[in-house]
């Protein structure tokens, strides 16, 4: 019954804010028209469509607000006016009572909160739709006296989330089935992505392990601080970590007053991000200003502080190669290479014509070269590439969409800190180094080293495997041997050619040298 009521409420909000016109312009069923007439009094149709969508999501509650935030990052699917408006959604909700936070903590540790903490701040420092954060001081154990931040999940979120997700899936199905416009927006894909995102956010142990991995990766860089996770006190619904002391990154005036080198900060941000992407293939993917602070402690002055590790992106070697090669080809304006890369990697159907893809890519990328190289946004380039690829029936990998979104965040942040920031100059060495490493002998050695244990395991078993094979498949073996022998003969001929050629060349060289010397003397 509750689900039906909630469904009715959602339909009411959709009609009242005129979202039917916004999403479903080709969706003109008589019953929709009738329903629209019923709720048409007071329909908010004067405001721009993006604003109407934002207000409707706010009306529908925190899960829908989060949905809107996630949706705002899909600039490859949404028109810019809607994406901009959705990006304004604030996931700040009134905190839940501290008694509930304390009860969750006590249940998680099986101890009274006063036994765990010598001091616990009842008023949270921040509260969002999924969790809130309290400052505290640990009482006992090996971290006694340590100042910590305690993140506590909002209780009973799972059933609420599941209910809203079920309704979203239903609505996405309708939109996709009934409207041509709706299909283009890929609503079911978007809801599935959101589903994963929400479930990931509901496990604080996952978040803590992401933080620990990033902390290890970033340890040698000396540019960013990541709170230490206090594993004795981490559970699925409670996470205790080192408390960091910093100034939020968007308080630039305060940072300047304290003597922080702002342009350096902008460069460091890009360096950190590219190290995470191209060196580690593991990057913080929720880089909004609320999650970034700057340390003002004397020992670590001017370093970034990174918080909130609910969303991280991972990239395979293949993804990294795709990015490095595409960016490099793009900056050489070699659109044919970009097109070839898409076909070689199997992203585009093999029958795709290179010249067609090349000209589509040129059409979206070329306008960017109107401006100086340093002003070009890599995030935007990537987004344009994805938009073009979609036209050629390519399903873009979610980790690359996440990367593109984070790239836009980082660039936005960098430019806000320093409008003169030359993104390409900062990014280029990373791409070049990465490309060199991929092609150089070090990479081959590293690969051999990585495979060595496999070979060591395989070698002793080789005689037995060969024996089995000979016993059971002599005919196939003969055929394969014939192929191998033919191949060897061919290689021998080639080798002979090379050797004879080499000897001839060397003799030629010696004779020339002798003749030259004779002439010189
Ligand atoms: N280790 C920490 N040290 C100091 N402050 C912290 C720490 N962790 C979190 N905070 C504070 O709590 C705020 C919210 O933390 P966090 O972003 O992890 O929570 P959240 O519920 O995921 O919020 P959102 O979804 O809005 O990003 C941070 O902006 C910061 O002010």
TrEMBL record:
Binding site for ATP: 125-133, 151
Keyword Endoplasmic reticulum: no
EC number, as in UniProt: 2.7.-.-
Catalytic center residues: 286 (proton acceptor)
Domain of life of the organism encoding this protein: Bacteria
Regions that span the bilayer: 497-516
Biological process (GO), any one: ubiquinone biosynthetic process
Keywords: ATP-binding, Cell inner membrane, Cell membrane, Kinase, Membrane, Nucleotide-binding, Transferase, Transmembrane, Transmembrane helix, Ubiquinone biosynthesis
Subcellular location as annotated: Cell membrane
A family per Pfam: ABC1
GO cellular component: plasma membrane
Family: Belongs to the ABC1 family. UbiB subfamily.
PANTHER family (UniProt xref): CHAPERONE-ACTIVITY OF BC1 COMPLEX CABC1 -RELATED, PROTEIN ACTIVITY OF BC1 COMPLEX KINASE 7, CHLOROPLASTIC
Function: Is probably a protein kinase regulator of UbiI activity which is involved in aerobic coenzyme Q (ubiquinone) biosynthesis.
Protein name per its UniProtKB record: Probable protein kinase UbiB
Organism this protein belongs to: Hydrogenophaga intermedia
Phylogenetic placement of the source organism: Bacteria, Pseudomonadati, Pseudomonadota, Betaproteobacteria, Burkholderiales
């Amino acid at each position: 019954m509750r689900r039906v009521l909630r469904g009715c409420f959602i339909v009411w909000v959709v009609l009242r804010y005129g979202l039917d016109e916004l999403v479903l312009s080709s969706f003109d069923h008589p019953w929709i028209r009738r329903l629209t007439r019923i709720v048409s009094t007071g329909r908010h149709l004067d405001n721009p469509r993006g604003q109407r969508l934002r207000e409707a999501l706010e009306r529908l509650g925190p899960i829908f607000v989060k949905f809107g935030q996630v949706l705002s990052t899909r600039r490859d699917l949404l028109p810019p006016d809607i994406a901009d408006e959705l990006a304004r959604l604030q996931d700040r909700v009134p905190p839940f009572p501290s008694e509930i936070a304390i009860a969750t903590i006590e249940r998680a540790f099986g101890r009274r909160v006063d036994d765990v903490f010598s001091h616990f701040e009842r008023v949270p420092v921040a509260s969002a739709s999924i969790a809130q954060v309290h400052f505290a001081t640990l009482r006992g154990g090996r971290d006694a006296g340590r100042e910590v931040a305690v993140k506590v999940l909002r209780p009973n979120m799972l059933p609420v989330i599941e209910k809203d997700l079920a309704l979203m899936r239903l609505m996405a199905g309708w939109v996709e089935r009934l409207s041509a416009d709706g299909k283009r927006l890929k609503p079911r894909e978007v809801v599935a992505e959101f589903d994963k995102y929400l479930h990931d956010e509901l496990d604080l142990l996952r978040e803590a392990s992401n933080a620990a991995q990033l902390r290890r990766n970033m340890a040698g860089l000396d540019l960013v601080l990541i709170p230490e996770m206090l594993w004795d006190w981490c559970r699925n619904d409670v996470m205790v970590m080192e408390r960091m002391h910093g100034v939020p990154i968007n308080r630039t005036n305060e940072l300047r007053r304290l003597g922080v080198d702002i342009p350096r900060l902008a460069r460091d941000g890009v360096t950190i991000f590219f190290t995470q992407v191209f060196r580690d293939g593991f990057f913080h993917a929720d880089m909004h200003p609320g999650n970034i602070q700057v340390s003002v402690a004397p020992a670590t002055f001017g370093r970034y502080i990174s918080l909130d590790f609910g969303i991280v992106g991972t990239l395979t070697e293949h993804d990294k190669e795709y990015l490095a090669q595409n960016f490099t080809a793009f900056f050489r304006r070699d659109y044919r290479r970009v097109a070839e890369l898409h076909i070689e990697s199997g992203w585009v159907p093999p029958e795709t014509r290179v010249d067609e893809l090349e000209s589509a890519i040129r059409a979206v990328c070329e306008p960017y070269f109107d401006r100086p190289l340093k002003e070009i946004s890599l995030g935007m380039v990537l987004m344009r590439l994805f938009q073009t690829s979609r036209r050629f029936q390519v399903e873009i990998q979610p980790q690359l969409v996440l990367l593109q979104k984070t790239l836009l965040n980082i660039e936005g942040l960098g430019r806000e800190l320093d409008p003169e920031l030359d993104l390409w100059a900062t990014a280029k060495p990373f791409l070049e180094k990465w490309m060199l490493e991929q092609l150089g002998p070090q990479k081959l050695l590293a690969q051999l080293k990585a495979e060595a244990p496999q070979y060591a395991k395989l070698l002793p078993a080789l005689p037995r495997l060969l024996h089995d094979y000979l016993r059971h498949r002599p005919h196939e073996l003969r055929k394969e041997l014939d192929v191998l022998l033919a191949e060897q003969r061919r290689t021998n001929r080639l080798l002979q050619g090379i050797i004879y050629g080499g000897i001839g060349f060397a003799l030629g060289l010696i004779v020339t040298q002798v003749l030259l010397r004779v002439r010189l003397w």
